[in-house]
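User:
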Amino acid sequence: MKQEERRRFLIEELLRERPSCRRQEIPEDADRQKVLLRSLMNVRHPGAVSQEFLEVQDAYLQGELEAKKITRLSELSPVQEGIYLWRGDITALECGAIVNAANSGMTGCYQPCHNCIDNCIHTYAGVQLRLKCARIMEQQGHEEPAGQAKITPAYNLPCNYVIHTVGPIVEGELTRQHCERLKSCYRSCLELADENGVGSIAFCCISTGVFMFPGEKAAEIAVGTVQEYRAETGSKIEVVFNVFKEQDERIYRKLLCADGTAETGTGGGGCGLGRRWRRAVGLRRTYL
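Assistant: Predicted structure:
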């Protein structure tokens, strides 16, 4: 099959699963077909799927992946020892594991073509990821609390694993509990990665989108937690801070001192993260 044939096959199969959509016309335009296919994958609830569907889907997603520019960790330059800053599409990053900022249901975003990281990861991994997450949640028997982490295969993504974590939702004033839960997200992901022998991990900006955690505070917690974990445990795991927005890249670059300059008050060329870290986790009430 060619890509066009695979895409049409997948659309037809997914439409058959939805009686209300069986009269849906398949557009001739390739871009509109891609939107329709993604929408159908997004709204599909976890359930049995044929081996033929999986084989065609996997071939299609691998073909789409080949058309992307894959970025390999080995191509990046560290800003600190074992720590990288990269702005790009996390679903096109080849590394040990990428982190998914999930919701408490843990089975992905069901809003068609939503631009959140949860939606993107589930789309390009394939329907197997939602099925795997659903099985994990069925065994767990309750929603995923904020600050914990689960690991799954990455299926059709170029990384080996996806580590899913639920960040805190900030409604109103930022509190110390919000900050502690966000720190726990990063710590839980790092611990789970090390437990599973994952050599590298790429973090998205957890909780800073629709969960409304202030971006600068979130970055301070992210950087502080990773550095603290590596120092305390001696872990050699390589960490990528993946950002999508230019503003977030500036925030992380300043924190990581990628330009070689010091933050205020360090005197020795360091990043001054001690004081910034105390602010971030809320040990000084004036910053909350």
